[in-house]
Amino acid sequence: MLRIILTALTITRAGDGLPVKAPTDVGMSGNRLDAIERVVTRGIRAGGYPGASVVVGRKGAAVLSKGFGKLSWNPASTAVDPQRTIYDVASLTKVVGTTTAIMILFDEKKIDLDANIVSYLPTFGGGSRDQVTIRQLLTHTSGLPAGRDIWRIARSPLEARAAIVATELDNLPGTRYVYSDLGADLLGLLVEVVAGEPLDKFLQNRVFGPLGMTDTYYRPADSVRDRVAPTEVTPPRGYPLRGEVHDENAYAMGGVAGHAGLFSTASDLSVFAQMMLNGGEYNGVQIVSKPTVELFTSRAVGHRALGWDTAEGILGAGRYLGPGAYGHTGFTGTSMWIDPEREMFVILLTNRVHAARALRPSKVIADVRADLSDAAVLSVIEGPSVIASNPRAFRSDREVGWNPPPARTVKRRSGSSRHRTIATASKRSKASASKRARAKASAAKGKASSKAKSSKKKPAAKAKAPVKRTTSKKPASS
């Protein structure tokens, strides 16, 4: 608590991002916010990720901006700093980048959400693909499959893009929800066609530059490599990744894709989150209109909004975010949730794909994400009394399923046909057959030995007088 207040008193701004205020200045409890440190640290100690960057903001200010752990597991690695440490944000690219670009083009009336994508990308046409709309791509109901291993077949970014456009549908458009990276990639290509410039340049000129997000970009320069958290140690590319996009398909597309590829800091993303809370405006710069923000962040199909996801107690949203809350997660261990009702946002960046030491790192990050959101909401003093009361123990306090003990060997009764796996069943079957063979051989050896002993005694019996036998046959029962 004291640390947070001192930080607020001595620092006026989080880097070039949001102003910093004490929790009490925005109606939050510093003591309750302390739970965040316990939650995030437990994830590190359990081996879920080597470090994390967290920013919690409310009413236009950052009330907690803190780095935990290090960029890698190396003890000599740099400590995480929310203003300086750059993370591969993975699927946060879909909302911070691609969806925002679509919102801008929608505002400018350059696209129609219910128009067929083929009217902008003619090469995507053919069969039921002619019916796919921009809205369906945004809600993951286009009929496209979840993904394809484009990186296995493409030898250049141009080939990768061609393969994406040539993808056949798995379902009829509008009939089923399937979360698809390919849909976001098509949206990225749409932006380039309509805007007349590459996706990364459009976003830099229209979003990141105007907002002062100086550490948000695709393909980080070598000059910032030492500030980038590493990701995969043994990827298909054959070398450890640091400053290169983790997603293989995004890499095949040249590092710039609609579904992944962005790198950013928690501080930069806090500015973006505040812009969304402000109805598309930040520091006098209007990025998108307020009605467009409201349209794109409202539920459209199930729990999905347009591009964005909404909080339903799943995917790291926790239990207490408001009904209008929206956000997204990223495979590398990132998440951002925005709650308009409480004028609050929660950002978590980790590199849980970097040689995680936990047995189930995906379970660790899922629980930490949810706990982080819960702890932030529970810190709001003027919240409902039921929420302001002491919560149940956080998921991170229980660590259920994080590092489960190895399965114990259970003795089974002879003759049981139940086995843990096919491999153990086969092993036991072979052992049993070997045991039977040894027993059979032992029995045969014993029988042979018995016959040998019997044959040695027979010569002595020959000295007796021969016995006369009759030839008459009698019943076997006699």
Please tell me about this protein's structure.
With 478 residues, this protein is α+β, with helices and mostly antiparallel strands. The chain has a domain at 2-85 and 265-398: Beta-lactamase. It has helices at 2-10, 30-45, 92-107, 134-138, 150-153, 157-165, 181-195, 199-211, 248-252, 266-277, 290-296, 361-378, 385-388, 395-398, 422-461, and strands at residues 51-58, 61-69, 87-88, 217-218, 262-264, 281-282, 285-286, 309-310, 326-330, 334-339, 344-350. A six-stranded antiparallel sheet has the order 2-1-11-10-9-8, with helices on both faces. Strand 10 (334-339) and strand 11 form a beta hairpin. Helix 2 (30-45) runs antiparallel to helix 12 and helix 3 packs across helix 8. The chain is globular and about 95 Å long.
Name given to the CATH homologous superfamily of the domain at 2-85 and 265-398? DD-peptidase/beta-lactamase superfamily
By CATH, the architecture of the domain at 2-85 and 265-398 is named 3-Layer(aba) Sandwich
Order of helices and strands: HHEEEHHHHHHEHEHEEHEEEEHHHH
Question: How many strand units?
Answer: 11
Return residue spans where pLDDT drops below 50 for at least 5 consecutive residues: 1-15, 414-429, 452-478
> Cα-atom Rg, whole angstroms?
33 Å
Q: In whole angstroms, how far apart are the ends?
A: 104 Å
Q: How many H/I helices? A: 15
Which topology of the domain at 2-85 and 265-398 does CATH recognise? Beta-lactamase
Strand order of the largest sheet: 2-1-11-10-9-8
Structural class estimated from helices and strands = alpha+beta
